[in-house]
Design a protein that fits this description.
about 210 residues; alpha+beta; Alpha-Beta Plaits; Sulfite Reductase Hemoprotein, domain 1; 2 domains; 6 helices; about 30% helix; about 20% strand; binds iron/sulfur cluster
Length: about 210
Amino acid sequence: MENGVKKIKIAVNGGIGFGAKLNARQLLMISKYMSEDEELELTTFQQLYIEIPEDKKEEIMEEFRNVGLACYPVGNFVKSLRTCNFCKGEEEEGMPVAKELNRRIAGKSVPFTLKVAYTGCPIGCGEPMVSDIGIMKTGDHYNLYVGGKAKGKDAEVGTLLMKKLTPEELYDTVEKIITVYSEMGKKRETFYKFLKRVGINFLILLL
Ligand code: SF4
């Protein structure tokens, strides 16, 4: 609360493109809503956290979107898709598929923050193997991993759940996984712990 104005935190980034970049217009727009002593938080998930007045939230987000910034909620939601830099080209590395998947899932409410990563080839720059849900494009298809864990002494590589998915199969499967987690996960239970509790075989039965 500043000068009686309640503020809320939102996450912004430049959307899915060739690298996690912001242009000058976008930086100017973000700074328009910051005082000199305020700070931006840069997360490990290609998002910036900024606090804005709650009563002007919708109009500010509209302004942000007009300069190409993508806005997402902060908290127990599906994060915006973490991607690689698509260094081999937009179509070849499936950028339209990444954008569509992000459009379908980012911001959905879940028991605990859910991280989904996409990578355009098996080199894996988007780190899909250590994300809750990871997608790796191989040839014309997509392999889907679940249950990776990047942090902690018990960090773990995810398990290959399905391979050679078409884009439609990929969207459908990821959306179903998120629905199952939303409905069956306990409050604040991470996806990693949820998977350990129910088991991957049980998850497959529900897909
Ligand atoms: S995962 Fe592949 S396509 Fe994506 S940035 Fe890395 S090398 Fe390039």
